[in-house]
Amino acid sequence: MMIFALILLGVLLNVGAQLLLKTGMSQIGHFEFTMANAFPVGMKVIANTPIISGLCLYVVSVGVWLLVLSRVQVSYAYPMLSMGYVINAIAAYYLFGEPLSSMRMLGIFIIIAGVYVVAKTT
Predict the structure, then answer these.
(1) Half-sphere exposure of 116 toward its Cβ, with a 13 Å CA cutoff?
(2) How far apart are the C-alpha atoms of 13 and 50, rounded to whole Å?
(3) Distance from CA of residue 116 to its chain's centroid?
(4) pLDDT tens-digit map of 71-97
């Protein structure tokens, strides 16, 4: 049970990082990917608290992931990260108003079924 808690913690840290990065980029807004924009946009990115916080969460999630990999097979642990897609889609719906179409919901249920099958292999 402890390993599942570590995997879930890693997933949640990853989800939190993604949501913070999205929040930060929503504050910065759309930009053209050009050399002329590299410095001004880069400065906005490094001064943006949600982006910096998201990157910090990624660092912590890597530490948790290393703990997980030291304890279980990667072929078991890695598919569990797919739950991040599920949690992110639902969180993005509530936090950012992103659509959850019927096709997306079908994909979410397929992911959940796949993770369940992988979890039952231990």
Answers:
(1) 6
(2) 14
(3) 19
(4) 999 988 988 899 999 999 999 999 999
CA distance 42 to 55: 14
Give 34's DSSP letter: S
Report d(CA 13, CA 95) in Å as an integer. Answer: 17
Q: What is the tally of structural domains in the chain?
A: 1
DSSP code, position 86: H
Name the token pair of 52.
């910096």
- The parent domain of residue 106 ranges over 2-119
Q: What is the Cα–Cα distance from 11 to 77, expressed in whole angstroms?
A: 11
**pTM of the model as a whole:** 0.87
Least Cα distance to 80 among 65, 67, 93 occurs for 65
Rg of the chain in Å (alpha carbons): 17
Q: How many residues does the chain have?
A: 122
